[in-house]
Amino acid sequence: MMLKGCEIVNKPEIRIGLLGFGAMGRTHAFAVSSLPYYCNDLPFRTIIQGVATRSVEKSSAVAKEYGFAVATDREDVLINDPDIDVIDICTPNHLHADTVRRALAAGKHIYCEKPLASTLEDAEEIAALAAKTDRICTVVFHNRHLSAVQRAKQLIEEGRLGRILSFDFRYLHNSCTDVQKNAGWKQSADVCGKGGVLFDLGSHIIDLAVFLCGKFRAITGTEQIAFPVRAGLNGEQWHTNAPEAFYMLAETESGAKGTITASKLAVGTNDDLDFAVYGTKGSLRFSLMDPNFLEFYDNDAPHAPYGGMGGFTRIECVGRYPAPAGAFPSPKAPQGWLRGHVMSMYSFLNAVYTGKQNAPTFADGAYVQRVMETAMLSATEGRERLVSP
Fold first, then answer.
1. Are 238 and 318 part of one and the same domain?
2. What is the DSSP annotation of 102-168?
3. Does 154 lie in the same domain as 39?
4. Per-residue model confidence as pLDDT tens digits over 337-346
């Protein structure tokens, strides 16, 4: 209950069971706790009821530090808890599908980190299971929810780019360039999936390409392992078994052509997600390292005399989200990577509250999985592969 003047206001409560508390579990917990600050007058309250990790000791320490009521090392404790409405999956890729099946069987809404699964068969199966229920099931492609990406989508839908001709999407890290550093689970095909960086960074950038440019007709892919031998998870010599970089030539169903790159071999990068989309009437450019601005080129602007009004315009998207999210912090205040996660969490929880499925759905996640597996087949066969519907 909350007090509003002298009136007592009751808000429905959405209770979350958080599975995993690594970097993404911590990020999701931040998003949940931050929502009342970023979004004014939310019609619901959210709390993380419990957390499950690989050990009771870690779960207990996390629960004590963050004020969660339940700490366990067994996912089913949270999945089968009648007081929990949502299962938030932040575990490694190869665990997603089985957890989703059990959560759906228990009647839970599901917020699942990308990729949806580690195989196409699993992704399509759980997407079909979700479609047969009235549960809200969402994949965490949080970059869709950055203000500049939303503005890019708006400009494309308004026809300001005309017909899209070409594109370039890239997600670059440097995390595989130090062979003395122990490999992480995202570099292991046994845990992350056989796509390696394609499943990790690639899933994000493929989703953005589909979101802005449409579905694909065909893909030509090639992978790269620059360091075949490195320190493994235990520090001992290990043979790299998943791509450290993946490169694609892609054609959309509408005929646009372009490139998609996911790499952890880019020395000098940090979290460098960027894209450019070129159309008959205009173009767009964006960089996650400069997330407050979207660059738009209007080919209809006068270019004379002396250049007229030609050139790329930097649109100050900053924190200018529509209500209820535009008031805090100031719409002029710069935003960063975390804001995408906050707005992604809001979109999901608001869908749980209203009962109206938001995007990206599990079907969207399964489609990204289909594109990734088509790209891997192309790389293996050395030829273009069609992306089936």
1. yes
2. HHHHTT-EEEEESSS-SSHHHHHHHHHHHHTSS--EEEE-GGGGSHHHHHHHHHHHTTTT-SEEEEE
3. no
4. 899 999 999 9
